[in-house]
Specification:
Keywords: Hydrolase. The chain has a 6-stranded antiparallel β-sheet with strand order 1-2-4-5-6-3. The protein is globular. By secondary structure, it is an alpha+beta fold. The chain is 24% helix and 32% strand. The termini are far apart. It has one domain: Hotdog Thioesterase (Thiol Ester Dehydrase, Chain A, Roll).
Length: 164
């Protein structure tokens, strides 16, 4: 086997998310996400798996970042579009989550992603931002953007979530 085709290995560890669910129900969505961003609450397993960082959080606005890695690649040698979709789904949902009162929850009803540019390991750090467009009693919508370090647009997304 040549070095170019050598098998790679990646180990991932995460905290059990179940104990956090009870705590989350006692906090507003913004309080919970601020504690998560401050490192007072361990990140969810998806953040560890995908390599997400939560650098910015405010009511109705959030951003996460990630550096695309080889393990994000699809069979054609580019970062799988699922990374962009997952990043956008995450910031769109969290932006809505920051508007929730203690005890409220939400679920995604619809997610639309428009891909504009491919990513590779050479892309460097990418940032997804999401902001709430409408927050009603039962329905909320948000829009988001995924950009590279130079601000070039990689993908956009919109979501509708049901408030529970």
């Amino acid at each position: 086997m040549t070095p170019e085709t050598a098998t790679r290995e990646r180990t991932i560890t995460w905290d059990d998310p179940k104990p956090l669910l009870a705590e989350a129900a006692t906090l507003s969505g913004l309080e919970y996400m601020q504690r998560l961003a401050a490192g007072e609450i361990p990140p969810p397993p998806i953040a560890k798996l995908m390599g997400f960082e939560l650098p910015e959080i405010a009511e109705g606005n959030v951003s996460i970042s990630c550096v695309p890695q080889e393990w994000h690649y699809n069979p054609i040698g580019m970062v799988h579009g699922g990374l962009a979709a997952t990043m956008l789904d995450t910031v769109l949902g969290i932006s809505i989550h920051t508007t929730l009162a203690a005890g409220e929850a939400y679920t995604t009803v619809d997610l639309h992603v428009q891909y504009l540019r491919a990513m590779s390991v050479d892309t460097g750090r990418v940032k997804a931002t999401g902001k709430v467009v409408h927050r009603g009693r039962r329905i909320a919508t948000a829009e988001g953007r995924l950009t590279d370090a130079d601000g070039k647009l990689i993908a956009t997304g919109i979501t509708t979530c049901m408030i529970l």
